[in-house]
């Protein structure tokens, strides 16, 4: 069973099969290069089009803060062990294996020997 990409390449390079090796490679390069250029330009157009489309909407100014409705839902409170440590270095939550432990021992020995 072939993939869609293989079928596309087969269809495009159908005429190039009878060419010598150099011409076959050159044709393959030129056609795939033109595909990348064409698709790159389409992608760039789509990105720019979507950016312009996003800014077509009229933004309304924010009202006075006194006019805002009060928040009545529950507040999200983080679990204490998940909170950020404000002083010192953050605590790592990574799982350490034997290699990390050996590396720490080597680092300690290097510091002690200096």
Provide a concise account of the structure shown.
The chain has helices at residues 4-12, 21-54, 98-113. By secondary structure, the chain is mainly α.
Please describe the topology of this protein:
Blueprint: H1 4-12, H2 21-54, H3 98-113
Kindly, what is the distance between the CA atoms of the first and last residues, rounded to a whole number of angstroms?
A: 64 Å
Helix content: 40-55%
Q: How many β strands by DSSP?
A: 0
Helices, by number, come to 3
Please mark out the parts with pLDDT under 50 across 5 or more consecutive residues, or reply none.
none
Q: Quick one: overall form?
A: flat
The profile of the biggest β sheet is: none
Explain what you see:
The chain has 114 residues and is mainly α. The longest helix is centred in the N-terminal third of the chain and has 34 residues. It has a domain of 51 residues.
């Amino acid at each position: 069973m072939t993939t869609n990409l293989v079928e596309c390449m087969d269809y495009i390079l159908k005429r190039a099969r009878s060419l010598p090796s150099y011409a076959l490679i050159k044709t393959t390069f030129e056609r795939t290069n033109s595909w990348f250029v064409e698709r790159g330009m389409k992608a760039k157009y789509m990105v720019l089009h979507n950016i312009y489309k996003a800014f077509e909407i009229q933004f309304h100014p924010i009202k006075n803060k006194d006019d805002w409705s009060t928040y009545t839902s529950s507040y999200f409170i983080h679990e204490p062990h998940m909170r950020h440590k404000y002083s010192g270095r953050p605590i790592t939550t990574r799982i350490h294996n034997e290699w990390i432990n050996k590396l720490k021992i080597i680092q300690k020995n290097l510091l002690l020997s200096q």
